[in-house]
Every structure is written in structure tokens, then in C-alpha cells.
Write a structure and sequence with these properties.
The complex is a heterodimer.
Chain A: E1 9-12, E2 18-23, E3 34-39, E4 46-49, E5 63-68, E6 71-76, E7 85-93, E8 98-101, E9 105-109
Parallel strand pairs in A: 1-9
Antiparallel strand pairs in A: 2-6, 3-4, 3-7, 5-6, 7-8, 7-9
Chain B: E1 2-5, E2 9-11, E3 17-24, E4 33-38, E5 44-51, E6 56-59, E7 68-72, E8 77-82, E9 91-98, E10 106-109, E11 113-117
Parallel strand pairs in B: 2-11
Antiparallel strand pairs in B: 1-3, 3-8, 4-5, 4-9, 5-6, 7-8, 9-10, 9-11
The chains are: A mainly beta, B mainly beta.
Chain lengths: 110, 119
């Protein structure tokens, strides 16, 4: 059972928008920055969003992140078939003194 | 920035193992570096990190006492070590770098090392 809760799967058509939620609590999301990772099939994870809403160089602005209270959201617009992947949220948990991840969300682009 | 991990391993239960991760393209000693486990078909689990400059180490409570994280700053390499492997240690292990302090996000990942433990 993951400390952070994500929906197991989401789906949408090419060109559409999808939202992936990440729910936590005060010791983790509530008081720490959230990051998001994309893991394509058979590959290592890749950083998409850090510090709640910042994009690393090279990440298109189709990917955006936000945080409110103890929840965070990843939004992907203009979906492409290449976006099919597992997406993970992560943050620091101050009570565990450890980094924690959500269970992952599988995105299917129909 | 590159994190290059050692190759896949096949071991028997009870054997010891040490896998490695060599960092390049950045100042190795001043970034936290650590390990993330991904069991077959499962999600990401943070194991712990080390600060190579002074070997300060933080373990996840789930992995404390189960593994040892170390680093050799002279060769810019971090290690993950087991003294007695179990079948349940079968997983892909990713090396990862944190961009800031110990609570900061992971910004770079290694390619992963598959460890298979089977009798």
C-alpha cells in the first residue's frame, strides 16, 4: 500500500487532455514539494515535473503540474501515442524521513 | 549528467551482492545519490541515499538493515550491497541523483540493474 494514492489507470484519445491525481497527507504532499515521473515500457523513469510545477529543460509545456493542500495533479494536454506510459508522483515524507512514491498510473492513449 | 550502472546479476538465495553506479558529468561529491527498487510489474520504492562528500546516509525504514548503501568518491561510484539475498530481492534497481538537499526531487536516473535471485 503506497503512502501516496494515484488512480491505477486513465485513458483518453489522441489530442485530448488527461488529469492524473496524487493524494497524500500533511507529512508528505502537504508540506513538501511534489515531483512527477514518466516511465515508458522497459525504460528507466524520467523526471517530468519538480517542485510541484516546474519543468526540466526539454520537457514540453503539454505537461503541467500543480498542488493544492495534500493533493497534486499532473495534466497532459494534446495527448500523443508516445505518451503511453506509467506515471508516478513522488515527494518527501517528513514523518518517515524518506522519499515516497504513488503506486503509479498507467496512461492509455486510445 | 550520466549515471551508468553495472550489469544484470543472477544469484542464489543466501549469496552476497554489490551493484554499482558511476556518476559523470557533474560534481559527484555534492549531490545526494541513491537507489530505487522496482519489483516485477510493480511501482517504485525509494530505498535510501548517500551524500558522497561525507558518506552521510539516509535509509527508508522499509530497507533499513536489509541493504547497505556506500560510495567511493575517488571513483565517483555509489554502491548497493546485500549480505544475504532472498528471492524477494528479485527486482530492477535504479540508481538516482537528487538535485538538491536530501528531501529534493530525483532529477537523473541510471539505466537500471536487473537482479534475479533464484535457486
Amino acid at each position: 500500500q503506497s503512502v501516496l494514492t494515484q488512480p491505477p489507470s486513465v485513458s483518453a484519445a489522441p489530442g485530448q487532455k488527461v488529469t492524473i491525481s496524487c493524494s497524500g497527507s500533511s507529512p508528505n504532499i502537504g508540506n513538501n514539494y511534489v515531483s512527477w515521473y514518466q516511465q515508458l515500457r522497459g525504460a528507466a523513469p524520467k523526471l517530468l515535473i519538480y517542485d510541484n510545477s516546474k519543468r526540466p529543460s526539454g520537457i514540453p509545456d503539454r505537461f503541467s503540474g500543480s498542488k493544492s493542500g495534500s493533493s497534486a495533479t499532473l495534466v497532459i494536454t494534446g495527448l500523443q501515442t508516445g505518451d503511453e506510459a506509467d506515471y508516478y508522483c513522488g515527494t518527501w515524507d517528513s514523518s518517515l524521513s524518506a522519499r515516497v512514491f504513488g503506486g503509479g498510473t498507467k496512461l492509455t492513449v486510445l | 549528467v550520466q549515471l551508468v550502472q553495472s550489469g544484470a546479476e543472477v544469484k542464489k538465495p543466501g549469496e552476497s551482492l554489490k551493484i554499482s553506479c558511476k556518476g559523470s558529468g557533474y560534481r559527484f561529491t555534492t549531490y545526494w545519490i541513491g537507489w530505487v527498487r522496482q519489483m516485477p510489474g510493480k511501482g517504485l520504492e525509494w530505498m535510501g541515499i548517500i551524500y558522497p562528500a561525507d558518506s552521510d546516509t539516509i535509509y527508508s525504514p522499509s530497507f533499513q538493515g536489509q541493504v547497505t548503501i556506500s560510495a567511493d568518491k575517488s571513483i565517483s561510484t555509489a554502491y548497493l550491497q546485500w549480505s544475504s539475498l532472498k528471492a524477494s530481492d528479485t527486482a530492477i534497481y535504479y540508481c538516482s541523483r537528487h538535485y538538491g538537499d536530501s528531501s529534493s526531487s530525483i532529477d537523473y536516473w541510471g539505466q537500471g540493474t536487473l537482479v534475479t535471485v533464484s535457486s
